[in-house]
Backbone:
């Protein structure tokens, strides 16, 4: 098979490396890919949002399958465009990807179908939002822009003034553009967070092994929220008992709810959960693999990913027995100095071999480019250094050992991946 993967981050590099293991795969293309991906696949200069460009390339090059990995092209209907032209594609159609694209949609869905989540109200009027927050007078309070905002549209306000500033920023200054036309004002929940990615064909849902993301920029969960600074799998807080509660109260009801709404979800559905004192609740849904969750989950997959993808597309996922390795995995993200705010690009990365790898770990490239035999930084999150071991400690030790061999000016990484709640 010839497969085209849409996207350019560490998640896409991970997907490509897993696809390469399949004996069924003859050639992999990436649109647009990155420096590390260029060592594993053929990168083509087509943007991840270019639906027509992707479709045309797929037709002209006899692509058997397009894997649409990022949220934006999914929300924008890339899978609809491709399937409309007779091209097989993995990922939800736009009407289902809205589960990530609109927080108002996902909150209303959960309320309608009794899926546990934080209590909330939706507002279109900033004055009404503030009236509500003042009447509740309970802090911290969580304020979320409705639409996609690169994971940055969530503000946890610890007092009245912070809440007022957040409402103004999102709704009046339009910091996240039209994503802030509506806001969700939400009850603040506490407890460890768990990411569970699941394959679903709309009929059955098969959760993958659990993981834990570390979203804050600095150690001890300090600093700004980022796309994710590191991950581990499995998540120690996700016991078999919790998993069973999630299956019954969250995973299966969500699939059924989407079907009832005429929005059958096919692809990878990501459940962002919080294990609260009242049981597991949904913090958010994503319509795709997480990044850097994919980096620790997919390496543990033993079943051929191509077989699973085809079973999802053809709605026969129930026939597949998905096997996972018992090993633990850890991923440490090396980011550009300054990320998630402004940072420099184009800095040379040293310590990598000609394939962008180091011994003892797998290096998934995110913001890198490859030029004249050198790897250069080209984004906020640069590399995800991933290792596995019999225990989490062993995986972490291997990953950090490999991190120590790699350097670039201003490189920043967390030293406490796997250690905090
Ligand atoms: P989201 O983009 O919805 O995943 O939110 C980003 C992060 O904000 C989450 O990973 C949580 O750490 C935090 N968060 C979101 N909603 C809540 C909530 N209701 N209570 C506490 N923390 C939250
Ligand atoms: N790591 C969080 C996400 O992919 O949304």
Residues:
């Amino acid at each position: 098979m010839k497969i085209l993967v849409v996207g350019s981050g560490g998640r896409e590099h991970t997907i490509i490396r897993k696809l390469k293991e399949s004996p069924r795969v003859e050639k992999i293309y990436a649109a647009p890919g990155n420096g590390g991906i260029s060592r594993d696949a053929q990168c083509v200069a087509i943007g991840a949002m270019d639906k027509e460009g992707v479709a045309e390339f797929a037709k002209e090059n006899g692509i058997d399958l397009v894997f649409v990995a990022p949220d934006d092209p999914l929300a924008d209907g890339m899978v609809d465009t491709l399937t409309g032209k007779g091209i097989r594609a993995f990922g939800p159609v736009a009407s289902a990807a809205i589960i990530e694209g609109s927080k108002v949609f996902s909150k209303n869905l959960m309320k309608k179908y009794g899926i546990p989540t934080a209590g909330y109200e939706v507002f279109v009027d900033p004055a009404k939002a503030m009236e509500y927050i003042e009447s509740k007078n309970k802090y911290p309070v969580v304020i979320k822009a409705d639409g996609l905002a690169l994971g940055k549209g969530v503000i946890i306000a610890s007092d009245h003034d912070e809440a007022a500033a957040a409402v103004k920023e999102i709704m009046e200054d339009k910091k996240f553009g039209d994503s802030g036309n509506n806001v969700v004002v939400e009850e603040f929940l506490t407890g460890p967070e768990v990411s569970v990615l699941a394959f679903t064909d709309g009929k059955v849902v098969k959760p993958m092994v659990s993981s834990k993301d570390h979203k804050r920029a600095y150690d001890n969960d300090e600093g700004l929220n980022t796309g994710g600074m590191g991950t581990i799998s499995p998540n120690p807080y996700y016991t078999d008992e919790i998993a069973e509660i999630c299956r019954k109260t969250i995973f299966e009801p969500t699939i059924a709810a989407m079907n009832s709404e005429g929005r059958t979800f096919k692809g990878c559905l990501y459940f962002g959960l919080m294990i609260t004192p009242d049981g597991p609740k949904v913090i958010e849904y994503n319509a795709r693999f997480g990044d850097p969750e994919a980096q620790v989950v997919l390496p543990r997959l033993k079943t051929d990913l191509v077989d699973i993808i085809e079973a999802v597309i053809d709605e026969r996922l129930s026939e597949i027995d998905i096997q996972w390795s018992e090993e633990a995995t850890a991923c440490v993200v090396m980011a550009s100095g300054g990320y998630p705010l402004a940072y420099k690009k184009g800095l040379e990365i040293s310590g990598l071999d000609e394939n962008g790898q180091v011994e003892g770990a797998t290096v998934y490239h995110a913001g890198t480019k490859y030029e004249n035999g050198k790897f250069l930084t080209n984004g906020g999150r640069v590399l995800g250094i991933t290792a596995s071991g019999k225990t989490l400690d062993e995986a972490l030790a291997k990953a950090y050992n490999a991190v120590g061999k790699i350097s670039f000016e201003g490189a920043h990484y967390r030293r406490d991946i796997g250690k905090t709640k």
In short: The chain has four domains: 2-93, 119-187, 193-319, 328-403. The chain has a mean pLDDT of 96.
